[in-house]
Amino acid sequence: MRLVVVGNGMAGSRLVSEVRTRDPHMKITVFGAEACRPYNRILLSNVLAGSSRPEQVRLVDPAWYDAHDVEAAFGSPVAHVDRETRHVVTEDGRREPYDLLVLATGSDAIVPPIPGVERAIPFRTLGDCERILGEAERARTAVVIGGGLLGVEAARGLAGRGLPVTLLHLAGHLMERQLDVEAGEVLGETLAGLGVHIRTGVSAAGIEDDGVRLDDGELVEADLVVLACGVRPVTGLAADAGLEVRRGIVVDDELRTDDPSIFAIGECAEHDGTVYGLVAPAWEQATVAAEVITGGKALYRGSRLVTRLKAKSVELAAMGETQLGEEHAEVVRFSHRARGTYRKLVIRDGRLVGAILLGESDAVGTLTQLFDRGGPLPGDRAGLLFPGLAAAPVAGSPTLMPDAAIVCRCNNVTKGRIRACWEAGARDVAGVAASTRATTGCGTCRDAVEGIVGWLCEQEGISV
Q1: Using CA of residue 105, residue 233, residue 266, residue 439, what is the dihedral sign?
Q2: Does the first or last residue of the chain, that is N or C, have fewer Cβ atoms within 10 Å of its Cβ?
Q3: What is the dihedral of CA 372, 378, 383, 386, to 10 degrees?
């Protein structure tokens, strides 16, 4: 069996690893358009901020491919899929046969068609990040265009280097897809405290040598302009091959396209009308596809999205139907803008269908579990937002958390798996991560993993 994977990013590299875990003998070839080893795209804002070095966000050790008999072709974009002969053809003319093909081509940054846009740098890849850092060393001021998750991360990262940053956003508040109006405003106030000047309800008409020209003629001065205007699934390869493409490459519950020998996963895939732009769904899809590819049975039923942002002085979790108000659902809300705190629960039929948690909160883990499971909520709504006030403690500490509780959402790692890993000899976070991959996604579960490991060591009187 010959497996070819097109795309060696977070989805493609995870699929290769999952397949090799299940089948040590299958011939695997993976083509990556980028010339470097796969890396954690979620952590690029940390690279911008200087809290992580580029080599610290790599996903795969250089020796892994040889050790696991996987051929990886870096900097080798695939230009054509020949479905009749079952070959892929690279831009430099290499033809590679396949029995099964996985498309994990990801997304490209959206570049708005405005004059002078070539003066700006998109924020999408590690190469983009390195270009931005090079310009930032010489810049006195920066502008980020786009106030979604990527734009917020880029602005936070540049401000973390002491660079004055203006964030321009077309909508009336930041991250309008995930946050309601007040949450967006509180987030803006938090960023302002970190040195980011927020401008909402404005549109960039062009980029000039000395800054960004707005629609009303105003010039926002900047030496560095970063684009964070969203992403678009890379579907051209699939479309040219005659596969069904809508917003993304259409797949069924086994992640197969309308050609049963071709799968698609990650940001390029569209399942049940949805294209997911977060890492957790991509890794869930990689696990399902790997199981099917190696002869097992598995189905992908979609993902419940939780958007996380955790950085110095900025903590955010948003899930589900966050925009609903009292006319459509039961809403429990708390706001303390002076502290940068905003908490909102959206409840329908006694179940949590949405939540926003902005600012430091020990309720995130419990609410995420309740959202995932869709089970009935306790009557004490205030206790959900403020676990310390509840009459009975919630499962926030390692002692009270059930083994079935998911600790690392990106990798679907439960407390029980962490406990089993500890019992097998792992005595620190690095050991747990090596065995379970917990903490290797967005990294927001690191404190919880440390707490569980520390608690287990304490119970057994082990010093670490």
Answers
A1: positive
A2: C
A3: 0
